[in-house]
Amino acid sequence: MILATVTGRVVATQKSDELRGSNLLLVTALGDDLEPVKDRTYVAVDCVGAGVNDHVLVEEYFALHKQQYKAMSIVGIVEKIHQGR
Amino acid sequence: MILATVTGRVVATQKSDELRGSNLLLVTALGDDLEPVKDRTYVAVDCVGAGVNDHVLVEEYFALHKQQYKAMSIVGIVEKIHQGR
Amino acid sequence: MILATVTGRVVATQKSDELRGSNLLLVTALGDDLEPVKDRTYVAVDCVGAGVNDHVLVEEYFALHKQQYKAMSIVGIVEKIHQGR
Amino acid sequence: MILATVTGRVVATQKSDELRGSNLLLVTALGDDLEPVKDRTYVAVDCVGAGVNDHVLVEEYFALHKQQYKAMSIVGIVEKIHQGR
Amino acid sequence: MILATVTGRVVATQKSDELRGSNLLLVTALGDDLEPVKDRTYVAVDCVGAGVNDHVLVEEYFALHKQQYKAMSIVGIVEKIHQGR
């Protein structure tokens, strides 16, 4: 998983079945200074009710679940990051 | 998923069975300025009727579905991108 | 797998079901000099009881196991690294 | 999938069972100028009868099929690339 | 798959079940000049009896096999590399 911050959202009416009803958010990977890294922005399905500016955990990889696809997803909202301890 | 723009198409008569009948498009990843990023062009199967210059959602990863391969695919056409909100 | 060092931990109360009860650690990939590499920090589920500053083996990729997701994980604690022999 | 060009071949007598009988080719990813990109060379199993200098479609990712592994593969021979249209 | 060279080995007593009994080798990806590339070293399970300095084929990705994980693995020992032919 990567640490990321929610930086926006995406509207896509025409989409494949596995994305129907999904909330699609822009997420940007965080560097070691916890600032967004240039050109590392992805689109992820929100599974946890995240909002813009939240720090989140993002599964970078696509997977199958019970014979259905699951796209890249936000799987947690980060409350605290303890670095170096 | 990544944001990309459709930048062309590919003709390949000789191909593996899982690609037969697929529409193969060139897609180039978008940077944070929503401009194409150099040397990040892929070939994706179109699942949603996308055309050249459309902004699209692309699943970067290959997967199996019901015991069949599914190649990298365009899974949505993007109508609006809200950055920073 | 990659060699990494544990560089911190993450608290996330709101998270998807597959992460419930998991210990989430920050891990930073090691370069050839066995020093952490800038901006290559991930969040991994600890499977082996690792602690901060431990050298660890990390599976970079997400997978399904017995119809359940398994997130990026720490799968070993490294005791010795023999380079060039 | 990526666009690549076949740049050589590899001989490996001692190999795992899933590769037995495979034709292993060196493939190098193409940049936006359709020239090979430095240090982006892979080894792929040929599924379509490709030869050196052919432009090909390569699935970058490893997958399971009917309980058998399938290694990175050449899945199409490219005849034409239409850029920007 | 990538071409790599075996550059060392790793000792990890405390490890997850799927790695038990595995021989863990350090492998470094080779560039187009067939020299190791800086900071592209991984840990792979040896499936073919490889030794230090051998040129090997490495599956970069993690997969499931018969409901068991299979970590990144060395899947072949390379005897000859024919570039450009």
From TrEMBL, chains A, B, C, D, E:
Subcellular location: Bacterial microcompartment
PROSITE patterns registered for this protein in UniProt: BMV
Keywords, ordered alphabetically: Bacterial microcompartment
Pfam families: EutN_CcmL (PF03319)
Superkingdom in the source lineage: Bacteria
InterPro entries: EutN_CcmL (IPR004992), EutN_CcmL_sf (IPR036677)
Protein name: Ethanolamine utilization protein EutN
Upper classification of the organism: Bacteria, Pseudomonadati, Pseudomonadota, Gammaproteobacteria, Vibrionales
